[in-house]
Structures are given as C-alpha cells and as structure tokens.
Amino acid sequence: MKILKKILLALLVIVVIMQFFRPEKNMDTSDHLQAFIEETQPSEEVQVILRTACYDCHSNNTVYPWYAEVAPVSYWLDDHIEHGKGHLNFSEWNEYNKKKKDHKLDELIEEVEEGEMPLASYTLIHHGAKLTEAQKQMLYDWAKRMRTIYQLGDRPQ
Fold it and tell me: Which of 41, 66, 119, 154 yields a CA-CA distance of 20 to 30 A from 98?
C-alpha cells in the first residue's frame, strides 16, 4: 500500500510539472486557407463542413477547446494535430503538385466513406463535426469534381 501511495504521488507531481511545459499551439492568424478555397472553389455548404469537421486537425490553425490547456490532454491533441497535418494540410495546398492534390482528395473521399474521418474521438466532443449522409455526399461530389479537373490537367475555373 505504501508503494502505491508513492507511485500516485510521483504521478501527481509529474502531471503538475507537465502543466508548465506545453506543446506549441497550432495557430496561424494569416489567411492560411485562401489558396485552397480559391483553387478548389468549395460551395458554402462544403466550406462549412470543412471548417466544422476538418480544419482543426488538417490546417495551420486550430480552434482549441478549454481542455486543451490541461496536460496530458494538450500533448494528446498536439499529436493528433501533427499527425493530421502530416496526412493532409489544407493550409499548404499550394505546395502540393496536381498529382498529390488528386491523391489527397482521393484519400479524403476514402476516409469519409469508410467513416474514419472525422475521428470518433473528435466527434464525441464536437457533435457538429459528425457528418450526415447528405454532408458526406456533398464532400464526395466536390472532391470527385476536383479530382476530375486535376486528372485532366486543368485548373478550376
């Protein structure tokens, strides 16, 4: 029993110390999505879906909930954001070539269709991010249209 108390005390001390060392926030105040929006021309409805369900983890600007200030949750969120941006970062859309853009849109379609995105852990707290079938279809139609444009080698009009 004495060893359990020592372990719990040590864990408490570690958690308290963690509060003073936080990961850097993913916050870009510039118009980081302008190039993506201008090029892909999503409808207003698709823009709302992307803003609500995607941008927090797949752009250079995250809207953080209050609990993101508490370690170890802050580290867990930072890991999710970095992982998400590693797969697709709408803020860096201009840096992708057409083939990569096409591939990223294909992955978007696949992840949404399979229910992998948005993550269940995200929609648990962000209820508005849970996509309806109609929203999935809007995303699918928009992404499919963009893929066709990239495959033909055209730029969106």
Answer: 119
First to last CA, the chain: 70
CA distance 40 to 105: 11
For residue 58, give both structure tokens: 């797949």
Percent of the chain with pLDDT over 90: 49
Residue 11: which H helix or E strand, with range? helix 2-18
**C-alpha angle with apex 27: 23 to 20, nearest 5 degrees?**
25
Contact between 60 and 26 (Cβ < 8 Å): yes
- Contact between 23 and 78 under an 8 Å Cβ cutoff? The reply is yes
* Residue 15 or 90, more confident: 90
- The single-letter code of the amino acid at 74 is S
Mind listing the pLDDT tens digit for each residue in 95-143?
999 999 999 999 999 999 998 888 888 888 888 889 999 999 999 999 9
Closest CA to 101 of 50, 151, 44, 32: 151
**Tokens 């005390």, located at residue:** 9
Largest CA distance in the chain: 71
* Cα distance between residue 39 and residue 128, in whole Å: 26
Give the 3-state secondary structure of residue 131: coil
